[in-house]
Amino acid sequence: MAHIINEVSRTFNEFLLLPGRTRKDCSVQSVEVSTPLARHRLGEPSPLILGTPVTSAIMQSVSSHDLAIALARAGGLSFLYHNQPIEDQAAAVRRVKTFKSGFVTSDTNVRPTDALRDLVELMERTGHSTAAVTEDGTATGTLLGMVSKRDFHPQRHDLDAPVSSRMRPIDSVPSAKGDITLTEANDRLFDEHLDVLPVLDHEGHLHRLIFRSDYEDNKRFPHQLVDASKRLRVGAGVNTHDYKDRIPALVDADVDVLCFDSSDGYSDYQADALAWAKQHYPHTPIGGGNVVDAEGFDFLAQAGADFVKVGVGGGSICITRDQKGIGRGQASAVLDTVAARDRYAQQTGIYVPICSDGGLVHDYHITLALAMGADFVMMGRYFARFDQAPGAKIPTKEGFVKEYWGEGSARARNWQRYGQATKMLFEEGVDGYVPYAGDLHEGLASTLAKIKATMVSCGASNIPAFQTGARLTLVSEQSFQESHANVTIRETTGTTH
Ligand SMILES: NC(=O)C1=CN([C@@H]2O[C@H](COP(=O)(O)OP(=O)(O)OC[C@H]3O[C@@H](n4cnc5c(N)ncnc54)[C@H](O)[C@@H]3O)[C@@H](O)[C@H]2O)C=CC1
Ligand SMILES: O=c1[nH]c(=O)c2[nH+]cn([C@@H]3O[C@H](COP(=O)(O)O)[C@@H](O)[C@H]3O)c2[nH]1
Ligand SMILES: [K+]
């Protein structure tokens, strides 16, 4: 006879936190939200620590290189999607790893012989008002001069004239050599009253541009997640089909961490793939998943997973539970696997972090997942709403929305996953829209402020203290109603989600 688990499968909506004693030294300013990402011996630091306990989902509609750069700058981490050719995913990793804050590749480039009219058009397209004039019109050609909107005016100058007639030629443009540091470059920008400083190699080819306006931008990101060489960190999703080709290419591109992406990680496929990865690339942490119970956690921890991702069927685009009748309420899944993690740590001395993946609808659900013992979370819908996510931004009567689709949807499969263009017999995800939420940094700052405020109310000054000290209560349907405002809401500019 089948085994029936008597305990009801519960979701985050069914829980609330009780306040704990807040001591005077515990404040929003002092609360620490760093958290381990990879397995480590108890009492020793994890080889990879997140500054912000959030990661972005391994999905085409979420984790592009742009989103990965933005999230790493905020202290979190993206796992670039694997549902694309290996070389494209490796190129995306390289784009994040070569992102140099302050040093940008020029995206507005012209030849000296191009007409000013073409330059105006290009500036409108890129939205930038400074252009590099290079011999071949590329971002790495020999630099011949610089031209900005200040150098000409459509009413004063003939737009059919060549760019060379209005550019500032190279001998009058201050420039720097390739080995200049950002600090030195910033000193020159200010000392010499410059807006931009081109960086050249010894043959005079353009390498990067450094803008004065980016100086302030860098000051905005004091908690960037970087490696020992100060490059942003980035993760990548992999699968149990082409991992023997994909993992070497990603490691070659200097990926920081990998994660198997599957709706079902409790499989021999994943154990074999983890063993292979650990044997060939022992220095690259790799996560496994998804599982929803202690049995699944133990299986992956023993197979060598550096972290275990938890959650089946709870994602906002998920229809797995409808289609296959498989899954578990996310709160129950987290609580069960967290208990297994703690038992495993006690027995072996090794701590294998847990990632709660999917189904986080409100910001406070992140807080609940952490309180229940998750070390960090993974989110798709949350990140798909921001400017930096790849989905198109579409106007509707109710305001802007962004596209968001599941990896198990027919749309995702259009990428001909794993090179097998087989017919899909059923979908496990939907293709839809989420409300547009602007810039990632502003949205995440607001979310983090809420998480920290709750931790302060619970008297926890860091995540480990929160995990061990949090007190949660189940809520009845009636108390759930009581939790919401019971008056008609006046329109305000505040954010709620
Ligand atoms: N977290 C969740 O609740 C869900 C997530 N998804 C997402 O949808 C995407 C697709 O997930 P899955 O369909 O589970 O992909 P998957 O690649 O893990 O599994 C697809 C099928 O291939 C089989 N398989 C895996 N490795 C194999 C190998 N080496 N040789 C032969 N067969 C093998 C599996 O048993 C399964 O039948 C993922 O991005 C996943 O995250 C989909 C549904 C639910
Ligand atoms: O049933 C599913 N069908 C899908 O097509 C699908 N695509 C992604 N995922 C999983 O959902 C997570 C993101 O969930 P949220 O949008 O709720 O953050 C992701 O991190 C995945 O675990 C899927 N689940
Ligand atoms: K299974």
TrEMBL record:
Gene Ontology MF, one: IMP dehydrogenase activity
Reaction(s) catalysed by this chain's protein: IMP + NAD(+) + H2O = XMP + NADH + H(+)
CDD domains: CBS_pair_IMPDH, IMPDH
SMART domains named in the record: IMPDH (SM01240)
EC number: 1.1.1.205
Keywords for the protein's UniProt record, in alphabetical order: CBS domain, GMP biosynthesis, Metal-binding, NAD, Oxidoreductase, Potassium, Purine biosynthesis, Purine salvage
Chain spans, region Disordered: 155-175
Residues forming the catalytic site: 318 (thioimidate intermediate), 417 (proton acceptor)
UniProt name for this protein: IMP dehydrogenase
Binding-site residues, K(+): 313, 315, 318
Domain of life, per lineage: Bacteria
Domain named CBS: residues: 103-163, 167-225
GO biological process, one term: GTP biosynthetic process
Family, per entry: Belongs to the IMPDH/GMPR family.
Taxonomic source organism: Natronoglycomyces albus
UniProt-annotated binding residues for NAD(+): 261-263, 311-313
PROSITE patterns reported in the protein's UniProt record: CBS, IMP_DH_GMP_RED
Cofactor(s) annotated in UniProt: K(+)
